[in-house]
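Re: folding output
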Amino acid sequence: MTASVKILTTSTIDSSPAILLISPNGHKTLINCGEGCQRSFLESNADRVRSVNQVCLTHIGYSATGGLPGMILTSADAAQASVEERNGIVGGLNIIGPAGLKDYVHSLRHFMRRDRFVLTLREGEYESTAKAGDGTNSRHGKGKKRKKAGTTSGDSEDMGLFGITSLPMKREIKTFYGKEDIHISSYIFTTSPIAGKFQIQKARNLKIPPGPMYSKLKAGEAVTYVHLDSGEEVTVTADQVLEGGSEGVAIALVYCPDEYVFDQLCGSDNKPNSWIEKLNRYKSSDPSKAALELIIHYTSKKLFNSEGYKSWMREFGKEVEHMTIHPLVENTYCGGNEELDGSPFRSGVMDAMQRSLLEADIYPNPILSVDSTKFEEKSECDLCIHQARPQLEYIIMPLAKKGIDKNTLPSEENTIHGFSTIDHDTIVKETKASGALEAATKVVESLQDGGKGSIQHSQLEGQLSDPNGCLIFTGTGSAIPCKHRNVTGIYVGMEDQSGIILDAGEGTLGQLIRSWKSTYKGTNDSAGDFIKSRIKNTKAAWISHPHADHHLGIIRFLTERNSILLHSDNHRISDDDRIALIASPSLLRFLDEYSKVDPTIYYGYIPVDCRDTISDRENPVASFLNRELGITRCVSVPVSHCYHSYAVVLDGTSFGRLVYSGDCRPSDRLTEEGHGADILIHEATFENGMEEEAVLKMHSTVGEALSVAK
């Protein structure tokens, strides 16, 4: 059986690093689950979210946990639908992470409940040994048969999983309340001992009876038998008939975001850490422990390229291979793998490229004209260093095949953000063949030339171009993950480049940054400042209801916005610098608890209960919205979907009166409050003819949405 390390995603504008460890019997361990992680599984035909048995987290923050609630919901619902319930339990997931993990998961209760899907949480210091499973041919025990996915946990469920040793450390970050230490973790993963090749001739020479005893020896067990010649009882150990075995293979994941953490790794902080010593033991060759084959470095490019860091790497020996995963350069929206690979969500990008061919001013091309090959790292030192790329796989076992799987290497052809000229030509060809390009051209021409609904082409440009207002849909997908569409998110931009977000599912900010970057008319050097100004000038967010697919992206937005403010020249932050966050009370309670584990969102928002913005009440942020955004009226309207679901009516936007329904059944009250709307955005989850399903799920059909518009 094969064991491997697979890179799901790297650091780009709309993705964070996620790594999959596949054990010999198929059990899977996911390292980090940031925003959009489920979509990356869909892009990989061989992997499914539900196949993950455990998750290891390097830290608590959007880049590590932004997609975890959604993954838990998907896994729980899939287990519920396909596995027979046993004693009220329908499966579960092991989650390992730094101190604060339990408080983080506890905070999720405000919008997520799957009580029959058991989460086993292990935080801070943790160590487990690898257990042999089917296919490992372990010296220390015979593997048990594998249970079906989703059954209850137990010893047999652990068979074949990697042994895990956490390396708890602390990172110092800057917040509005000063510098604070947060808990982080690196990891060592080990396989069970690997038995050598069975030497049948040696077994025959020792007069060992063939059959079950051979099987025990292959599994690493000793056998006792009566010698045929001497008649004496003899005990033979596995080492006497096996050759080439080892104590297993080790893989290290080093999360080292800055020099503060590096000092802890090196011991230069003069604070003894017995857990870091467990990693240091691999600096010397010791046949009694697993052999360190690969270190994955999740660290900044600047730190990784420093001579001090390289010297530390050399201490592990030249036989150890290394793989790099660099984050984006803070507040620049470049670096990492952005210029090299672009978005990992290829299906969605290709769809966007097709829409761009139809009308580029409305649907901007997400691919920038950057030669990706110029950004590929070239190792010039004496160490074996690989650059992580999406879907790249490193084989751990069998040992004869260890190393990079060449079939997963990206094409050597010149690419633009990971897309070759062949990809682009295929998209153009398919779009033309479908007839969509010709039809879209006729529609635009008819609108320009006159007739009912006639508009000028300059007005089309104004929908997405500065300095006019804009309306950007960052996603229109549902809670069920889809590789073609992101989950719900809308950005309403005003003429002065300020804006408000209406719902913020996973990936909302990544989609916005990609849109802003692709439509920016200035130089590449000034693009980062432009994006920062757009984020900073987004002064409000309104969340329709507490379902995860409508709000999980707000954490990244708050984190990024706070970082911009903290690194600005003006260190004195007033209430006007914060955003008004209008949401249900349950979501506000979640964010308050979450901020105690992840202080990067501290003080970044003014919490406003949606119930306080209903029409018959005095809106507590009315003057703020008017002053900062020009919105003269903001009314939340209770609608039928889940507890604390709302629609919203906004007056004073660049488009006049804008009405957004959120998720709901058709509402007479919304029709009354939003009468005379210039723009109506109404959900239409179900097609016509599916009215029964719409009523059951508390959504609307296309026909019902059109009836509301009329």
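--- second protein (sequence, then structure) ---
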Amino acid sequence: PIHKMTSAISDPRILILYATQTGISQQVAQKIYRLLYRLHFHNVSLSTMDDFNFREDLFGKNDDLYCIFVCSTTGQGNNPSNMQTFWKYLLQKRHSSHSLSHVNFSVFGLGDSAYQKYNFVAKKVQRRLLQLGATEFFERGFADDQHPHGVEGSLPQWAAGLREKLLELFPLERRGAPQEIDANEAHPAQYEIVRGEENLLDEQQEQFVSDARKSPLTDHSKQLNSRLQQNPTAPAVYETYVKGSVKVTERVTPEDHWQDVRHMSFDIGNTGLKYSPGDVLAIHMENSKTLVDRLLKRLNIQSSDEPIAIRKRDPNAPTFPFHKVTLSWREIFTHYLDIAGTPPRYFFELLAHFTEDEREKERLEYLVSGEGTDDFYRYNEREKRSFLEAFDDFPNATPTEEYILDMIPLMQPRYFSIASAQELHPTEVHIVVAVIKFTTPFERTRYGNCTSWMRDLPVGASVSLCISKGTMQMAPLHRPMIMIGPGTGVAPFRSFIQYRYAAHQKDKSTPIGDIALFFGNRNKDKDFLYEHDWNTLSNVEEFPFRLMTAFSRDQDQKIYVQHRILEHAELIWKWITFENAIFYVAGNTANMPQGVRNMMLQIAQKQGGKTYEEAQEWVQRLERAKKYQQETW
């Protein structure tokens, strides 16, 4: 008889590398990390792609390596900001088809099938790794935002398959490992809370020595430290954040309109911030004192203003980007943790370990089980339940302090397309904000956490700001631009147009390409955003600006920007084909971007005499050449 080989094998080295813009990919990576812990894999590293030393640890060694890549796709097939360096290095021509022959990998992608380039980043990472000689040890998986259960629509099945594959490759008994840790057993806390004056001084000294070993402070870092000393409670979640102040906050829709849309301007005169057309403004909000007080009380945190320090127990735990070594729970809740957000599934998994009430425990365990997926979605996701509401629904479950940091994720910045040109407004940055308001299936009225916070900011209020690159690049001054910007999608095009207007005003002889803006909304009298701007520009002598509007509710038959595009098919075809125009689309992802694309396919067929297949290739060619650009949300 042939006996199965049972010789001992060592623990493989496993890397979990993630790239995220909103934090969801990080949550997925952490879930995989906890799975590997239960399977007794101990040589595991967890990191963002850019923070990992990939030059040395991925390319610089030949030992067998297992890598699990978790990456989201942002915008129209764009990389998250924390994989930009990694991806550039991966593309370098000096790598050969054997550079990663020692690497075994699998990829899990997060995307939205409402976009043309669905899970594009995960696909290209997989393709590039194969080109460099890596071996795919487990099939890739995709999560789709359009699935009713979001990531959970596909992750559990993919993770179960990953588990089976890893146990097939590295059986527990051959690694000398005990039996698999029960999934219902709480994962160890990743952090510990340090209290006491002597301990805090030790922590500060350790941090001081650590900082001293790093490279000297840049001028920007020195300025940042100076600002923080002047305002020690200022949030500095990212090193590039600065403090601007609200200069203008103006509702631009009537009080009786269904949506509160606001024009907001921030004073950045003393910040040194620079931005270009197409950039986006990242805003770091703060949680309200009322919410913070209620959560502190619910969690029985008595000394909420007492200084504490956060120390890692698990070296793979995310580093909390606090600007001070010591701070209080009140500061953490106000500036750093997303306490107003909706809890992830792991929150409920952990909460089940902190109640002695059998009914609560049973309910919590059911919600996170496969059987309870639909009920979890109805209870949590569709209702957009907050952390405080979830805690209150299970009053006998109160976690210990160190687990709070595992249960509530860091607050993520919110991004808004910049609606101004610095050439016209050198000390200001403008955005347009639609305050999110909706009703849940159980008739609860909900507001967007950040947009409602911004709505209530008074003039002069201090706000943490940062500039980030957007997905669209403005055309050179001489090239025509066709811009489709319904609703708040008009924001980046106001920036583009202001930039060209400033160039025109500076030197009337500067060649300015033709500009066509297609704007749409519901009613001309209620939500014609920046109407005065467009009317003024239309009357500027020798400034080549034209406006086409579509107000869907001002007549019996609804008219959208898509219809206006078809009406101007000849102009669009001529500008793109013969005048090298760039075509832009910005706005809500619902139906508009696909509707615009369909109109472009019709234009190619009617004006260019192309077949449907040829029209598709024409649009794809425009996209590859960046002559068809989109920024949708």
